[in-house]
Every structure is written in structure tokens, then in C-alpha cells.
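Example S7 (C-alpha cells).
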């Protein structure tokens, strides 16, 4: 299927024209983002935790230490909400009321499950690394059995997911278009700067392809 089914939880109610359930678009936004915000409740108390993630097909992977309260809680099978937002620009209108932002966002609902199978767990760890910087997995030493055992990996199926997107110029009141006030969009982009080597790195070690070719 090319789109996710619309559910009561994923249906966009506020400005529904900005809603989108296209699977390719949702994958694209998730793949471009680097940090997600994971929401869940413990004994009725809400928590929202920023964390890294990775995606393989229609599975979103989250990982961390067995000592993590977040992961210990999620192992029990609680409902979660994951959000990823990409900020594309500030939208400057002729009135403060109509200022806005151009953005792409994804919201995912579901229940995360612990990944126990060794091959899937290793594939998830690779997905985390490749999500941060493509090509890096093959450049570093392999993970050890101890490192794998010391990491909890959770999988969240992408079954309830929706995107919300705003693009374009400001939407001012008709009367305000005649005002002598600048209006438009101030684009924002997340971009990488020049790499800074580890102070303990040998001067003989060259910049690897993953870093040299990195582009956002």
C-alpha cells in the first residue's frame, strides 16, 4: 500500500489540508530527521524523551542502555507516541498573528516491542549508525557480543503514522496585503560544517568517505 490507513489517532483535525498519509513521504521525513521525541506515560505521569532512532522498511528502531528508565518502561509494552519535525523556514507575515513556520513533521502511534533475535538486533544497530551518517558502519570496527548484549533495541511498527507539512508564503488578511511591510519566508537549513578530528587521532589517518561525502 502506498499510504497508511487513517485512524482516529492519526487523522489530522487542525488544518487537515496539511495532512498527508503517503508512505514514501513519511519515510522520507523520518530518514532526514536525526532526533525523535518519544512520549509515553508511567503510572499516569507523562514523559517526553528526545532520542536517536533508525528505520528499516516499516519498522522504527529505538535503542539504549538496559539501565534506561525509558526503555525499561517501554519493554512492558506501553503505548507510545513518536514525533519527528524538520523546520524548513520562518514565515514572516504582515501581522504578528499570521507569522508561522514551514515544516515537515511525522507522528507515529503504537506499542514498541523488544527485539530479541540476534540478526534483527544487529540490523537495527546498523540502521542507527547508517541513519546518523551513511557508509559509516563499514568503516568502524564491528560491534562486540558484549556491546550487543548491553544494548536494548525496541521496534515500533509504522502502522499508525501521519505527516503534516506547511510550505509557501504567509497567508495574510486581504486588507494587510496593501501595507508597506516586508513579508516572506526566511529559509532555514541544517547543514554540516568542516569536520574536526579527534585530538588523539593520528595525523596519518585520512578523512573517511562517509565524512568526506556527507551532505545535508
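Recovered sequence:
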Amino acid at each position: 500500500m502506498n499510504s497508511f490507513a487513517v485512524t482516529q489517532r492519526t487523522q489530522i483535525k487542525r488544518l487537515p489540508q496539511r495532512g498527508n498519509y503517503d508512505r514514501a513521504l513519511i519515510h522520507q521525513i523520518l530518514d532526514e530527521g536525526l532526533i525523535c521525541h518519544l512520549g509515553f506515560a508511567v503510572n499516569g505521569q507523562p514523559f517526553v524523551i528526545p532520542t536517536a532512532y533508525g528505520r528499516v522498511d516499516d519498522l522504527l528502531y529505538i535503542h539504549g542502555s538496559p539501565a534506561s528508565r525509558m526503555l525499561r518502561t517501554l519493554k512492558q509494552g506501553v503505548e507510545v507516541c513518536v514525533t519527528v519535525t524538520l523546520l524548513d523556514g520562518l514565515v514572516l507575515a504582515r501581522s504578528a498573528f499570521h507569522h508561522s513556520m514551514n515544516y515537515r513533521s511525522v507522528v507515529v502511534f503504537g506499542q514498541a516491542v523488544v527485539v530479541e533475535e540476534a540478526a534483527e538486533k544487529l540490523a537495527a544497530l546498523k540502521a542507527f549508525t547508517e541513519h546518523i551518517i551513511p557508509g559509516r558502519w563499514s568503516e568502524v570496527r564491528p560491534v562486540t557480543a558484549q556491546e550487543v548484549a548491553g544494548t536494548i533495541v525496541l521496534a515500533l511498527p509504522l502502522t499508525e503514522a501521519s505527516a503534516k507539512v506547511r510550505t509557501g508564503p504567509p497567508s495574510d488578511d486581504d486588507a494587510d496585503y496593501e501595507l508597506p511591510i516586508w513579508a516572506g519566508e526566511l529559509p532555514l537549513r541544517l547543514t554540516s560544517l568542516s569536520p574536526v578530528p579527534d585530538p588523539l587521532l593520528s595525523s596519518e589517518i585520512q578523512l573517511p568517505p562517509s565524512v568526506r561525502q556527507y551532505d545535508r
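Notes on this example. The mean pLDDT is 93.
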